[in-house]
Amino acid sequence: MGDITVSRVYDTEPVKGAVFLVDGMWPRGVRKEDLKLDGWTRDVAPSSDLRRWFGHRPERFDEFRTRYLQELEANPEAVRPLLEAARRGPVTLLYAAKDTEHNNAVVLREYLRDRLAAAHR
C-alpha cells in the first residue's frame, strides 16, 4: 500500500500497478489506444491558470507546489480514485512534462502519500 511512482508518459519503462494519467490535457503525439490506463484523472491536474502561471519554470516550483496542494485539498472527490487505488496496491502516475523533478505528478504523489500516512496514524 502507498507504493506510488511517477513516470513520463513517453518513457518506455514498465509501469507498476494501476496506471493513471494525471495531466489535464492529453499528451501530444500519444494515441489513446497506446496507453493502457486505469483512468485519466484530469480533475486532479492543476487548474489552467496555475499551469500557465507555473510554465514549468523551476524557480516557480515551490510556489506552484503550495498553490497546487491547496487546489488538491479543495477537491477531495477528484483525488479519491487515486487514494482508493493506492490502498489496493501499487499506482503509477503518468505525466507529460519534460522536467522529471518539477511537475504536478511529483506534487500529487507527495500529497497522496501524506494522505495515506495520515489515515494510518
Describe the structure in your own words.
This protein is α/β, with parallel strands linked by helices. The chain has one domain. It has four helices and four strands, in the order E-E-E-H-H-H-E-H. The chain has a four-stranded parallel sheet. The longest helix has 16 residues. It is globular and about 35 Å long.
Q: Give the averaged pLDDT, no decimals.
A: 93
How many structurally independent domains? 1
Overall morphology: globular
Distance between the termini: 14 Å
Summarize the main sheet.
4 strands, parallel
Main-sheet strand order equals: 1-4-2-3
Tell me roughly what share of residues is in helical segments. 40-55%
Number of strands: 4
Topology pattern, helix = H, strand = E: EEEHHHEH
Number of helices: 4
Judged by helices, strands and strand pairing, the structural class is alpha/beta
Estimated share of beta-strand residues: 5-15%
Unreliable spans = none
Rg is 14 Å
